[in-house]
């Protein structure tokens, strides 16, 4: 089977969507299928075409990371998408920006179209009347619609009431994300290390984790490691200084995805203070590495995190975040929550299971088309 994916970003870009698509494509290749991806040339140092882990990647012009940039990329990627779609058995749009190029491709291809709805950005746009109409038409364009969380599925169905959207939690490559040798130095004697693997954008709520650190320090000797970069970094560093905890918060910046298992395994507990969230691949990766997770009670996070693997706190509430994290650090059985998280990911959200789910769906759509 030839499977053609379209996704606005793809590795070496770093992020949950990029990780999800890459590992899904790789698994499908390992199952014996040809997989091609049309994506953006967002990192200029990358080649226009290459084969990564058996996946054939085509990168097309990209003007910048903005709504208008995504729209322009979608338009410019149409020729490459149409060409690659001619002998494809399945078309799979991995972002709403990816659906219009496939609508154009279907003038030359009869392959079924699968659309997966990701990201909190979709949720924001869905609240705007003009965009809601556009997104509803895009939902209606697919032969099957998947969503990264129950919340996203519900919103997508509300935009196109006669079309079913199936929530399917993103997967984790559990052979890579597992407890590993720590790569950060052991903290000072008695000090506990927290890790916050979040890009520094407003929606990720990292400000509230920074504000919680002094409150956590009232009960525990802690330090926090922030892995990720973004426009909020300068403000967050200044805030840490104002709160007197600049020496307890280490800003590591963006790190390669391959570095993450060792970084995650260098901490006792991960914090996800998101204000909006789909299903967080990064949280699942922490769980796969046996790191308990404390997360805000928003979006898809409560679908994967509960008291058995960590804890939930109110979004945008540093006091509640500090309470939950402090209680977890006081639990002598905290490591057992990490083990429970690993078991949950392996049993429910491994990339192998996810790839088989997709393959079964693809085959069913092809059978339906032939019947």
How is the secondary structure organized here?
Blueprint: E1 2-6, H1 16-30, E2 34-40, E3 49-52, E4 55-60, H2 67-76, H3 78-85, E5 90-93, H4 99-105, E6 113-117, H5 120-125, H6 129-141, E7 144-147, H7 150-159, E8 165-167, E9 192-196, H8 206-216, E10 222-227, H9 233-242, E11 249-253, H10 260-264, E12 269-272, H11 281-288, E13 293-296, H12 301-304, E14 310-313, H13 318-330, H14 334-348, H15 351-370
Parallel strand pairs: 1-2, 1-5, 2-4, 5-6, 6-7, 7-8, 9-10, 9-12, 10-11, 12-13, 13-14
Antiparallel strand pairs: 3-4
State the gist of this model.
By secondary structure, the chain is α/β, with parallel strands linked by helices.
Structure characteristics:
Rossmann fold; alpha/beta; 42% helix; 2 domains; 371 residues; 8-stranded mixed β-sheet; 6-stranded parallel β-sheet
Provide an overview of this structure.
Helix 9 (233-242) links the parallel strand 10 (222-227) and strand 11. The mean pLDDT is 95. The chain contains 15 helices and 14 strands. The protein has helices at residues 16-30, 67-76, 78-85, 99-105, 120-125, 129-141, 150-159, 206-216, 233-242, 260-264, 281-288, 301-304, 318-330, 334-348, 351-370, and strands at residues 2-6, 34-40, 49-52, 55-60, 90-93, 113-117, 144-147, 165-167, 192-196, 222-227, 249-253, 269-272, 293-296, 310-313. It has an 8-stranded mixed β-sheet with strand order 3-4-2-1-5-6-7-8. Helix 1 (16-30) crosses helix 15 (351-370) and helix 8 packs across helix 13. It is an alpha/beta fold. The protein has 2 domains: 2-171 and 350-370, Rossmann fold (3-Layer(aba) Sandwich), CATH 3.40.50; 192-348, 3-Layer(aba) Sandwich (Rossmann fold), CATH 3.40.50. The two termini are 18 Å apart. The chain is globular and about 65 Å long.
């Amino acid at each position: 089977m030839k499977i053609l994916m379209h996704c606005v970003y793809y590795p070496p870009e770093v992020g949950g969507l990029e990780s999800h698509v890459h590992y899904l494509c790789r698994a499908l290749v390992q199952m014996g299928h040809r997989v091609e991806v049309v994506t953006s040339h967002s990192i200029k140092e990358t080649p226009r075409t290459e084969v990564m882990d058996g996946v054939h990647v085509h990168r097309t012009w990209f003007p910048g990371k903005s709504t208008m940039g995504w729209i322009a990329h979608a338009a410019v990627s149409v020729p490459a998408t149409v060409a690659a779609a001619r002998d494809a058995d399945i078309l799979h749009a991995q972002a709403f920006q990816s659906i219009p190029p496939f609508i154009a491709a279907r003038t030359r291809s009869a392959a079924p179209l699968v659309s997966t709805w990701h990201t909190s950005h979709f949720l924001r746009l869905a609240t705007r009347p003009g965009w809601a109409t556009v997104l509803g038409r895009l939902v209606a364009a697919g032969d099957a619609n998947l969503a990264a969380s129950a919340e996203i599925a519900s919103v997508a169905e509300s935009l196109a009431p006669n079309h079913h959207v199936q929530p399917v939690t993103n997967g984790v490559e559990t052979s890579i994300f597992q407890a590993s040798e720590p790569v950060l130095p052991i903290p000072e004697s008695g000090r506990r290390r927290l890790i916050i693997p979040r890009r520094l954008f407003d929606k990720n709520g990292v400000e509230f984790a920074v504000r919680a650190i002094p409150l956590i320090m009232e009960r525990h000797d802690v330090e926090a490691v922030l892995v990720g970069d973004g426009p909020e970094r300068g403000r967050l560093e200044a805030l840490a200084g104002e709160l007197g905890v600049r020496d307890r918060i280490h800003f590591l910046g963006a790190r390669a995805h391959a570095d993450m298992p060792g970084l995650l395994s260098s901490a006792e507990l991960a914090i996800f203070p998101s204000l909006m969230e789909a299903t967080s691949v990064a949280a699942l990766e922490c769980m796969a590495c046996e790191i308990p997770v404390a997360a805000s009670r928003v979006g898809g996070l409560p679908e994967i995190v509960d008291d058995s693997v960590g804890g939930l706190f109110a979004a945008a509430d540093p006091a509640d975040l500090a309470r939950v994290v402090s209680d977890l650090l006081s639990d002598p059985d905290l490591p057992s929550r990490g083990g429970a998280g690993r078991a949950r990911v392996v049993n429910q959200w491994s990339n192998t299971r996810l790839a088989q789910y997709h393959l079964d769906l693809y085959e069913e759509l092809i059978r339906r088309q032939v019947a």
